[in-house]
Write a structure and sequence with these properties.
Number of helices: 6
Number of domains: 2
Oligomer: single chain
Helix content: 40-55%
Structural class: alpha+beta
Strand order of the largest sheet: 3-4-5-6
Protein name: DUF1648 domain-containing protein
Largest sheet: 4 strands, antiparallel
Distance between the termini: 46 Å
Order of helices and strands: HEEHHHEHHEEE
Number of strands: 6
Keywords: Membrane, Transmembrane, Transmembrane helix
Strand content: 5-15%
Radius of gyration: 23 Å
């Protein structure tokens, strides 16, 4: 009797593209639903930019706000989709999807909060956004990013050399050798730039408090986009290439390394 259990096939580029598009479609639907519910109670112009104290200090017409928000969703979704199409088998693809989820959720949260904050106000200059929205936007972005990483599945496995296939250096007894290489990830760099651009746009056009989640994601992604791997007498060191050599992620002592 043949077993009915079968291994789960890895995700292909098409399902990953559908998964990556999900959060952008969801926030567009949520944004449209909230606008439909409160459109009759919105002033024109809207309070769309808020200072660090939560006080409104920038205003935009309803039409411009809707158009700009929709353009942001489509732009960010198109960039994530393009990255997946250019390098569908790259090991960074699951993290690009996770970044897309975080970007979509943080941007969608900011514009939806802006609409709800403007509903039923007589004076738009009196609109306030409380400080706890900052922490909530961070939580939303992190949870959405974690969900995206989970749905993206495992990254494609890189081919591994068999043990002993690497030739050893023939060095004299008193000589030492070192090895260093910089490894860059264009998708992760683009993702970090996307998060940075989204954070700046949301901060300039809407609220710096709501943009904090996007800027935090950029601060995490950009240092990871280029890593320097060094093997010397101290062991193996992994450090971000864009930061100081003292800012290392990990160091493995030389006596724990069997082959490099």
């Amino acid at each position: 009797m043949k077993s009915a259990l079968r291994s789960v096939p890895p995700l292909t580029s098409r399902p990953r593209t559908v998964i990556a598009a999900g959060p952008f479609l969801a926030v567009i639907v949520a944004f449209a639903g909230i606008y439909t519910a409160v459109s009759s109670r919105l002033p024109d112009p809207l309070a769309t930019h808020f200072g660090f104290g939560g006080r409104a200090d920038g205003f935009t017409s309803v039409h411009s706000f809707l158009t700009g928000s929709l353009a942001l969703f489509l732009l960010f979704g198109a960039v994530v989709g393009l990255l997946l199409q250019l390098r569908p088998e790259a090991p960074e693809v699951p993290w690009v999807i996770a970044g897309g989820y975080a970007t979509a959720s943080a941007t969608g949260y900011a514009v939806c909060v802006t609409l709800l904050s403007n509903a039923d106000v007589a004076d738009v200059s009196a609109v306030r956004v409380p400080q706890w929205e900052l922490f909530l936007s961070l939580v939303v972005a992190l949870c959405a990013g974690a969900l995206g990483r989970l749905l993206a599945g495992a990254a494609p496995a890189a081919p591994r050399r068999p043990r002993g296939a690497v030739s050893r250096l023939d060095l004299p007894a008193a000589a030492t050798a070192g090895w260093s290489r910089t490894i860059s990830s264009p998708p992760l760099a683009v993702l970090g730039g996307l998060l940075l651009a989204a954070g700046l746009l949301v901060g300039l056009l809407a609220d710096w408090i709501a943009a904090a989640g996007l800027l935090f994601g950029a601060a995490v992604s950009l240092p990871l986009a280029s890593l320097r791997v060094t093997v010397d007498r101290r062991g193996l060191t992994l450090a971000p290439a864009l930061l100081s050599a003292r800012c290392r992620f990990r160091r493995i002592p030389l006596d724990r390394i069997e082959e490099a």
